[in-house]
């Protein structure tokens, strides 16, 4: 079966890339395929400007289709590469990906990929790669049919994750997996302090950028095709930000607690990279403390707020402790908890390789510690919004149910009459949808006085 992902198809421009860009992509993929790193450092790799689109398309595409590529590689190789040759393995995966998923002529995909082994100082591998990829061009249909007999390969997910999705969502697991395999759309959030989305939509049209209004977020738009942020009118000036529609709903859910209390104290407990932090400041007159345990990611929050002309108190600290707290209760707390990221796999496909089944219990334990530590910091009558970008119930409705059972003064106020997601326990779950929002969970709780 030949699959092609429309948004990762390349035209003539991708054919301009040669051995150097493929060697760079192989180096970038080694940490992922060896489960020692992520795609977060792609910008650190030196790639000429004309090849950057191809470089990213190949790196993300390989991660998105990795189970299938590795199954095919296993059939093509007589003996596996040694561990020290993970870069050559990455080249083979890149070659398979180009042949099956990109509009690159077969001779270029084979020749340039095999030749890239010389760029890695491993000329011996050119013959091996050439033979494997040429065999794939000859026997493509039969080889793909053979590996696709395994559902984990056909659906491009590790077995443990497919099992978890099936247990959590017996009627939706396949649709979730298929949505994960498509790149997510590029969604924008307008800065309401500087205009409304209808006016900004008109500016996009004037700039030749096609977009539509989001269905659920009153501040959101979705681009028909992703573009460089520098091409967005007013981006540098702070008129607009990139943020998925599901993530934009956090500010709407906290609105009832914040709008009636100008100057209210708000804690954004795990704030990086700062999208929700900024949205809250755009909408409400509040005193916001933004906390994160990762100094590098906290610096990104600072950059975001500076671009948007917003201010908050940024603190580098761990939200499982309280050494950063001055003792004054908060009117509202946003806990966008660390999670498995299973609702945003389409944006971070390396999650499928880097996440392990054993991680879920550890994450659930951390989430429980955060809830228990932060709840006493909330004033009587205040609201806590719990959020994750997960679709696994251990991290979501089951987590909140356990918290409610041990927290007598917590009352559920998650809205039921909304157009998005589905009621699940004390919260609402959004599942990833093609051309729409990511997977997300929200539960809103009020502290009884």
UniProtKB/TrEMBL annotation:
It is an enzyme of class 2 (transferase). Its EC number is 2.1.1.176. Residues 176-448 form the SAM-dependent MTase RsmB/NOP-type domain. It is found in: Cytoplasm. It catalyses: cytidine(967) in 16S rRNA + S-adenosyl-L-methionine = 5-methylcytidine(967) in 16S rRNA + S-adenosyl-L-homocysteine + H(+). One of its GO terms (molecular function) is methyltransferase activity. Keywords: Cytoplasm, Methyltransferase, RNA-binding, rRNA processing, S-adenosyl-L-methionine, Transferase. S-adenosyl-L-methionine binds at residues 270-276, 292, 318, 336. The keyword RNA-binding applies. The active site is at 389 (nucleophile). GO terms for biological process: methylation. It comes from the Bacteria. Belongs to the class I-like SAM-binding methyltransferase superfamily. RsmB/NOP family. Specifically methylates the cytosine at position 967 (m5C967) of 16S rRNA. This is 16S rRNA (cytosine(967)-C(5))-methyltransferase. The lineage of its organism: Bacteria, Pseudomonadati, Pseudomonadota, Gammaproteobacteria, Oceanospirillales.
């Amino acid at each position: 079966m030949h699959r092609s992902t429309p948004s990762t198809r390349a035209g003539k421009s991708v054919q301009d890339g040669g051995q150097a860009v493929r060697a760079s992509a192989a180096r970038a993929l080694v940490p992922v395929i060896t489960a020692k790193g992520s795609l977060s450092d792609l910008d650190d790799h030196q790639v000429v400007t004309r090849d950057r689109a191809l470089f990213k398309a190949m790196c993300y595409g390989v991660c998105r289709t990795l189970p299938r590529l590795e199954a095919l590689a296993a059939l093509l190789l007589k003996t596996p590469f040694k561990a020290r040759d993970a870069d050559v393995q990455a080249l083979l995966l890149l070659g398979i990906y180009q042949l099956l998923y990109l509009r690159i002529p077969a001779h270029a995909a084979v020749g340039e990929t095999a030749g890239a082994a010389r760029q890695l100082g491993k000329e011996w591998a050119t013959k091996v790669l050439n033979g494997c990829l040429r065999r794939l061009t000859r026997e493509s249909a039969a080889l793909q049919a053979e590996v696709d007999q395994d559902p984990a390969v056909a659906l491009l997910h590790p077995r443990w994750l497919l099992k978890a999705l099936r247990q959590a969502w017996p009627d939706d697991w396949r649709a979730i997996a298929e949505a994960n395999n498509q790149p997510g759309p590029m969604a924008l959030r307008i800065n309401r302090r500087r205009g409304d989305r209808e006016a900004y939509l008109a500016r996009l049209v004037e700039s030749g950028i096609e977009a539509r209004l989001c269905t659920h977020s009153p501040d959101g738009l979705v681009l028909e095709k992703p573009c460089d942020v520098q091409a967005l009118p007013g981006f540098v000036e702070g008129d607009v930000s990139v943020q998925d529609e599901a993530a934009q709903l956090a500010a709407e859910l906290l609105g009832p607690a914040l709008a009636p209390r100008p100057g209210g104290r708000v804690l954004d407990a795990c704030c990086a990279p700062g999208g929700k932090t900024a949205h809250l400041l755009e909408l409400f007159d509040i005193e916001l403390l933004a906390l994160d345990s990762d100094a590098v990611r906290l610096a990104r929050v600072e950059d975001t707020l500076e671009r948007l002309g917003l201010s908050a108190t940024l603190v580098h600290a761990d939200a499982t402790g309280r050494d950063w707290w001055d003792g004054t209760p908060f009117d509202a707390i946003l806990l966008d908890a660390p999670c498995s990221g299973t609702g945003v796999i389409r944006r971070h496909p390396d999650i499928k390789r880097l996440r392990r089944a054993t991680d879920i219990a550890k994450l659930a334990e951390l989430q429980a510690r955060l809830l228990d530590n932060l709840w006493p910091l909330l004033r009587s009558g205040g609201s806590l919004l719990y959020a994750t970008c997960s679709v696994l119930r251990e991290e979501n409705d089951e987590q909140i149910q356990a918290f409610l059972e041990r927290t007598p003064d917590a009352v559920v106020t998650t809205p039921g009459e909304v157009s998005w997601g589905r009621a699940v326990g004390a919260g609402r779950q959004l599942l990833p949808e093609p051309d729409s929002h990511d997977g997300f969970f929200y539960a809103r709780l009020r502290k009884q006085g």
